[in-house]
């Protein structure tokens, strides 16, 4: 028995089955969902899965006994038993899970918790949906085996006391879906598991999530942010099936933010560590399909349903590659989305009427601070980045990106892996972003390459809100912002990010949608006399420099950069083959080449005067 150190949860599972993902009153709606035309693909794959044998054999040797296809088939068996109420259907489902539990054995590595967690979740579904057909002795065995799997394979440990409730793998499936679902399913026999798991969620996760999602934008960027948001959505849906209400109550604005993180070409913005770029085209061109479905399941809003419909394809429901490594393969995996979950959470019967397209411009406030303009083929992004959280965050406070018919000014580099030199020495550094670099004085602490922003906390990941939202991890203040159909602006105090190299730094970014002009003004007071200050512009193709004017092209898109100040600015291009990822004179190429938007290199607008205050001012005209 687990002895929970947390307060008793304010919500407890009802004394009935089913109660996981749905209740008895939902069964009629779910049966109707099988006949809806929009669910035709999900039903087709669900019926295929019913004919798939479960043998406990891994998809490939390196995945041990894990096979996503077999797990989805076992889930389909349990779902069939739930709908039919037949003992023979339940026996098929129970025997399949029993076999998978007995056979489970996977290698070490950061996927083991995801594979083991998926099996615990599958066990929870079957336990709840086939409850009256499972002998008591088998229930005891399943509970014991799932606890053993969690103890052996979970990074959070068991009970799940390790890892932070702020970022990292502790904010993914282990607790927020797998153990939460398990604890709901076995609550009659083992209420202590629910009291521990739900207790930690209520005590730690709920207040943390409300803090870091207060402004709508996810601080871990659109890739990891959307993935970890999806697990929060799962927890919200599981609690809703138990209580009918919301627990976090703040997830909808972040789903809206994902709309603004989607470029006109359908791809996600590259911001922070980004693994979408390495995936197959169906995922790369509609990377938020799964989060949009979960947002629709939570809210019933038509805008999320339409966004989901545009990206839905067979690969999302049943990936061709039945192992699961979302860094190297295309699947989100772990059954974060499946034919069964689609059929259960389908909200078509109660879907809201069609709603207007979201406004073209929106600001997402504290603690991230972002402004986005999105209209037609134009996408303008401005980021303050008020706090730096390590993990998958980059040292990119005050950055911007511009898309106009094609990517023009973007982040540089790729997320080839967490520990490569390319990532550590280049991609996460300020030099890889459309930011300012300032040469620090000799011996300045927390200095990063090429005069980049300081490294808060020595790079240590903050584990609590008290640590993250303190002055050590602060990078910027939003001084002002404006948004309208005619454009947007942000003024940012970046002094905290450059306090090792500057007495003060402000950046003003403005986009005039009528004139199609982006204006940038940096005012810098370096600590070192004669310090080198540079405004960086990262491009996809080689630029053409003509005096104080630079022309940038990428396919159909053209931008003309005009350097307005300083009068003695040195303008140069750093890039081309073998020099795309230069930092401190060394090129750090990715370990896996041929990424579509790794970048050609950068334009540097450099000031090296002895003036106590420098002003770098440019305008970018979009053609």
Task: Walk me through this protein's architecture.
The chain has 623 residues and is α+β, with helices and mostly antiparallel strands. It has 2 domains: 24-350, Glycosyltransferase, CATH 1.50.10; 366-622, Distorted Sandwich (Beta-galactosidase, Chain A, domain 5), CATH 2.70.98.70. Helices cover 32% and strands 18% of the residues. It contains 17 helices and 19 strands. It has helices at residues 27-33, 40-50, 68-84, 87-103, 112-129, 136-153, 173-185, 191-212, 221-243, 252-260, 281-284, 289-299, 302-311, 314-317, 339-345, 421-427, 465-468; strands at residues 361-364, 370-375, 378-383, 400-404, 407-409, 436-438, 477-484, 487-493, 502-512, 517-526, 533-539, 544-546, 549-554, 557-565, 570-575, 582-583, 586-587, 601-607, 614-622. The strands form 4 sheets. The protein has an 8-stranded antiparallel sheet, with no helix packed on it. Strand 12 (544-546) and strand 13 (549-554) form a beta hairpin. Helix 2 crosses helix 3 (68-84). The model has no long low-confidence stretch (mean pLDDT 94).
């Amino acid at each position: 028995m687990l002895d929970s150190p947390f307060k008793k949860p304010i919500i407890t599972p009802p004394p009935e089955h089913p109660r996981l993902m749905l209740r008895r009153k939902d069964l009629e709606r779910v049966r109707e969902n099988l006949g809806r035309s929009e669910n035709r693909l999900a039903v087709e794959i669900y019926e295929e899965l019913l004919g798939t044998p479960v043998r406990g054999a891994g998809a490939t040797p390196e995945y041990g006994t894990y096979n996503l296809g077999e797990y989805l088939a076992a889930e389909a068996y349990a779902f069939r038993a739930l709908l039919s109420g037949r003992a023979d259907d339940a026996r098929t489902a129970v025997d399949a899970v029993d076999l998978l539990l007995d056979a489970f054995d996977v290698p070490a590595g950061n996927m083991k918790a995801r594979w083991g967690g998926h099996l615990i979740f599958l066990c929870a579904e079957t336990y709840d949906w086939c409850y009256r057909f499972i002998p008591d002795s088998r229930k005891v065995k399943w509970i014991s085996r799932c606890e053993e799997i969690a103890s052996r394979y979970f990074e959070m440990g068991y009970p799940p006391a390790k890892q932070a409730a702020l970022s990292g793998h502790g904010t993914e499936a282990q607790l927020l879906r797998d153990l939460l679902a398990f604890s709901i399913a076995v609550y009659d026999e083992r209420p202590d598991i629910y009291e521990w798991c739900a207790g930690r969620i209520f005590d730690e996760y709920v207040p943390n999530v409300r803090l870091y999602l207060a402004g709508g934008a996810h601080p871990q960027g659109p890739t990891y942010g959307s993935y970890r948001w999806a697990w929060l959505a799962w927890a919200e849906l599981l609690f809703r099936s138990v209580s009918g209400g919301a627990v976090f109550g703040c997830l909808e604005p972040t789903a809206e933010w994902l709309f603004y993180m989607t470029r006109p070409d359908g791809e996600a913005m590259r911001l922070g560590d980004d693994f979408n770029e390495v995936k197959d085209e169906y995922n790369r061109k509609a990377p938020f399909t799964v989060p949009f479905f979960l947002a629709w399941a939570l809210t019933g809003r038509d805008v999320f349903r339409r966004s989901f419909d545009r990206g839905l394809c067979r690969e999302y429901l049943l990936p061709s590659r039945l192992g699961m490594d979302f860094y190297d393969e295309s699947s989100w995996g772990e059954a974060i989305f499946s034919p069964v979950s689609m059929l259960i959470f389908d909200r078509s019967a109660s879907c809201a009427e069609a709603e207007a397209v979201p406004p073209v411009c929106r600001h997402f406030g504290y603690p991230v601070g972002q402004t986005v303009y999105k209209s037609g083929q134009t996408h303008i992004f401005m980021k303050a980045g008020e706090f730096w959280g390590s993990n998958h965050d980059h040292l990119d406070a005050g950055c911007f990106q511009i898309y106009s018919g094609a990517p023009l000014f973007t982040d540089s580099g790729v997320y080839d892996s967490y520990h490569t030199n390319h990532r550590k020495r280049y991609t996460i550094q300020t030099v890889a972003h459309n930011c300012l670099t300032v040469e620090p004085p000799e011996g300045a602490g927390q200095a990063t390459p090429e005069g980049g922003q300081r490294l808060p906390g020595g790079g240590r990941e903050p584990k609590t809100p008290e640590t993250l939202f303190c002055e050590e991890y602060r990078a910027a203040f939003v001084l002002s912002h404006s948004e309208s159909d005619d454009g947007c602006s942000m003024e940012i105090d970046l002094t905290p990010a450059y306090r090792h190299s500057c007495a003060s730094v402000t950046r003003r970014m403005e986009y005039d949608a009528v004139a199609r002009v982006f204006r940038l003004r940096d005012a810098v007071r370096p600590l070192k006399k004669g310090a080198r200050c540079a405004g960086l512009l990262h491009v996809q193709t080689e630029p053409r420099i003509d005096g104080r004017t630079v022309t940038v092209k990428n396919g159909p898109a053209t931008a003309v950069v005009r350097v307005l100040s300083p009068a003695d600015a040195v303008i140069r291009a750093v890039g081309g083959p073998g020099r795309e990822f230069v930092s401190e004179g060394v090129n750090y190429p990715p370990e896996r080449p041929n990424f579509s938007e790794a970048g050609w290199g950068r334009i540097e607008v450099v000031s090296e005067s002895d003036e106590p205050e420098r002003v770098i001012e440019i305008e970018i005209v979009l053609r």
